[in-house]
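step: validate -> pass
step: tokenize input -> pass
step: predict -> running
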Amino acid sequence: MSVEAQAAPRSGSSGPAGPGVRRSVAALRGLGLLATLAALVLVGLLSVWLGTRGIPVTSTWNALWQPDGSEASVIIHEYRIPRTVLGLLVGVALGLSGALMQSLTRNPLADPGLLGVSLGASTGVVVAIAFFGVGTALGYVWFAFLGAAAASVLVYVLGSSGRTLATPDRLVVAGAAVTAVLFAFSSAVLLLNPRAFDQFRFWTVGSLAGRNTDIVLIALPFVAVGLLLALGLAPSLNALAMGDEAGRALGVNVGRTRVLGAVAVMLLCGAATAAAGPIAFVGLVVPHVARFVVGPDQRWVLAYSMLFAPVLLIGADVLGRVLGSPGEIQVGIVTAFLGAPLFIALCRRRKLVML
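step: predict -> pass
step: emit ->
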């Protein structure tokens, strides 16, 4: 039995931990959320201030609140603010989709790419470039989202074929199969079309640069709907952590929860990948950090994941600009360098079980 299965009954009981202790723990977790929110505001301000073009703090602050058409004002309002807002949306989406994936599949190594969503989005971009001649990020985003949606639906159909419901194991196997097929198709198209490969390799690194307000507005509704779905599923995910039978005994509609969870992952991961390209390790590492801080309760894990992830992503983007000056290092590269050691450290500190 998983740790979550053991911990969940205790969390709602009136055992040794009395109401006063539970209130204190909840208060500490709430303060932790406020501290994380403050950290998010700080990295957001740093993202607006720091860049390849140096702008003094006072000029940044004045241009932020009183745009005057100056060069600094244009840079801040047309480039850095949309980039920071997109980092916020993509971070929230990756953090929530990673936590959902790990909970739905009860697999601590699951990430948003496990159901083929990320590779579906990448395949959509390959098709857009190779067959439709699309050459802008704004054009990619629709094809990427359609590819992510198509891959998600295909995985769920394959995972629920026959008379049985889509179980975590069946979904993982179906996701692996669809991912292999999409990877083979994309590789074949790119190898046969050097021009498409030349364009695609810049998108596939994962970056927040070069994205404008139009892409933010496209991604926003998908992330908002996925966020509401994910947070609404938190109580059901706590019950499912004890197993499908126990979840049904507690009144959870297992099939409905899995379908809505898959839809939320598709919306969140699809929108994030379409807008910024595939960004590794954020969806994998952040939920583990959240569980390390707050324990197994999915309500808190989802809440912390949706704040930790944009802190990591925007912070990595700022770090890439600082280290790569006068150019920049793409955020997908920075998150890989930051996420891999962090994940190894988590593996060494504790046994990776589904908490």
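step: describe -> DSSP finds 14 helices and no strands in the chain.
step: cleanup -> pass
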